[in-house]
Amino acid sequence: MSAGWYAKGVVPGGVGPAIIAGHIDSATGPGVFLHLNRLAAGDRVTVTMKSGVVETWQVTGSDQSPKSNFPTSSVYGTTPTPALRLITCQGTFNPAIGHYDDNLIVFADLVSVKG
What we know:
- This protein is mainly β.
- It contains one helix and eight strands.
- The chain has a single domain, classed as Sortase (Sortase, Chain: A), CATH 2.40.260.10.
- The longest helix is centred in the middle third of the chain and has 5 residues, at about 70-75.
Protein backbone atom coordinates (compact mmCIF):
# COMPACT_ATOMS: atom_id res chain seq x y z
CA MET A 1 0.00 0.00 0.00
CA SER A 2 1.14 3.51 -0.76
CA ALA A 3 0.36 6.88 0.71
CA GLY A 4 -1.45 9.38 -1.49
CA TRP A 5 -0.77 13.06 -1.97
CA TYR A 6 -3.82 15.35 -2.13
CA ALA A 7 -3.31 16.60 -5.71
CA LYS A 8 -5.66 19.59 -5.38
CA GLY A 9 -3.44 20.96 -2.63
CA VAL A 10 0.14 22.13 -2.27
CA VAL A 11 2.96 20.03 -3.72
CA PRO A 12 5.19 18.80 -0.87
CA GLY A 13 7.91 21.42 -0.41
CA GLY A 14 5.76 24.28 -1.72
CA VAL A 15 4.51 27.07 0.52
CA GLY A 16 1.45 25.91 2.43
CA PRO A 17 0.22 22.58 3.76
CA ALA A 18 0.90 19.51 1.62
CA ILE A 19 -1.48 16.67 2.52
CA ILE A 20 -0.45 13.00 2.37
CA ALA A 21 -2.96 10.37 3.47
CA GLY A 22 -2.60 6.63 3.93
CA HIS A 23 -4.30 3.69 5.59
CA ILE A 24 -3.23 2.07 8.85
CA ASP A 25 -4.56 -1.28 7.64
CA SER A 26 -6.89 -3.01 5.22
CA ALA A 27 -8.61 -6.34 4.81
CA THR A 28 -5.33 -7.68 3.39
CA GLY A 29 -2.94 -6.47 6.12
CA PRO A 30 -1.00 -3.52 7.54
CA GLY A 31 -1.10 -0.16 5.79
CA VAL A 32 1.62 2.36 5.01
CA PHE A 33 0.73 4.49 8.06
CA LEU A 34 0.32 1.61 10.54
CA HIS A 35 2.86 3.19 12.92
CA LEU A 36 2.15 6.87 12.23
CA ASN A 37 0.97 7.22 15.83
CA ARG A 38 4.54 6.53 17.01
CA LEU A 39 5.85 9.80 15.59
CA ALA A 40 6.52 12.51 18.16
CA ALA A 41 7.63 16.14 18.03
CA GLY A 42 11.25 16.27 16.88
CA ASP A 43 11.11 13.06 14.83
CA ARG A 44 12.01 13.32 11.16
CA VAL A 45 10.26 11.87 8.13
CA THR A 46 11.28 11.92 4.48
CA VAL A 47 9.21 12.39 1.37
CA THR A 48 10.74 11.19 -1.90
CA MET A 49 9.33 13.01 -4.90
CA LYS A 50 8.85 11.34 -8.29
CA SER A 51 11.81 13.42 -9.54
CA GLY A 52 14.09 11.77 -6.96
CA VAL A 53 14.25 14.87 -4.76
CA VAL A 54 14.21 13.89 -1.08
CA GLU A 55 12.61 16.23 1.43
CA THR A 56 13.24 15.92 5.15
CA TRP A 57 10.52 17.11 7.52
CA GLN A 58 10.52 17.53 11.30
CA VAL A 59 7.40 16.57 13.23
CA THR A 60 6.00 19.46 15.27
CA GLY A 61 3.03 17.62 16.79
CA SER A 62 -0.06 15.54 16.15
CA ASP A 63 -3.79 15.60 16.73
CA GLN A 64 -6.27 12.76 17.04
CA SER A 65 -9.84 13.88 16.52
CA PRO A 66 -13.20 12.29 15.78
CA LYS A 67 -13.98 12.19 12.06
CA SER A 68 -17.16 14.09 12.91
CA ASN A 69 -15.01 16.97 14.23
CA PHE A 70 -12.12 17.00 11.74
CA PRO A 71 -9.81 20.02 12.32
CA THR A 72 -10.18 21.35 8.77
CA SER A 73 -8.62 24.78 9.36
CA SER A 74 -5.57 23.31 11.16
CA VAL A 75 -5.01 20.83 8.34
CA TYR A 76 -5.87 22.81 5.21
CA GLY A 77 -5.39 26.41 6.42
CA THR A 78 -2.72 28.52 4.79
CA THR A 79 0.80 28.63 6.20
CA PRO A 80 3.61 31.09 5.36
CA THR A 81 6.17 28.28 4.91
CA PRO A 82 6.15 24.70 3.59
CA ALA A 83 4.16 22.39 5.87
CA LEU A 84 3.28 18.72 5.78
CA ARG A 85 0.18 16.96 7.09
CA LEU A 86 0.20 13.16 7.31
CA ILE A 87 -3.30 11.76 7.82
CA THR A 88 -4.59 8.31 8.68
CA CYS A 89 -7.40 6.65 10.59
CA GLN A 90 -7.15 6.01 14.31
CA GLY A 91 -9.33 5.09 17.26
CA THR A 92 -11.89 2.30 17.35
CA PHE A 93 -12.76 0.36 14.21
CA ASN A 94 -16.50 0.34 13.54
CA PRO A 95 -17.27 -2.86 11.62
CA ALA A 96 -20.82 -1.69 10.86
CA ILE A 97 -19.49 1.07 8.61
CA GLY A 98 -16.03 -0.37 7.88
CA HIS A 99 -14.13 2.67 9.18
CA TYR A 100 -12.27 3.94 12.23
CA ASP A 101 -13.95 6.60 14.38
CA ASP A 102 -11.05 9.06 14.45
CA ASN A 103 -8.37 10.61 12.27
CA LEU A 104 -4.76 11.09 13.27
CA ILE A 105 -2.98 14.10 11.78
CA VAL A 106 0.78 14.53 12.11
CA PHE A 107 2.10 18.05 11.49
CA ALA A 108 5.64 18.68 10.19
CA ASP A 109 7.85 21.51 8.90
CA LEU A 110 10.41 21.30 6.10
CA VAL A 111 14.02 20.92 7.24
CA SER A 112 15.96 20.20 4.03
CA VAL A 113 15.69 19.30 0.34
CA LYS A 114 18.30 17.19 -1.47
CA GLY A 115 18.59 16.18 -5.08
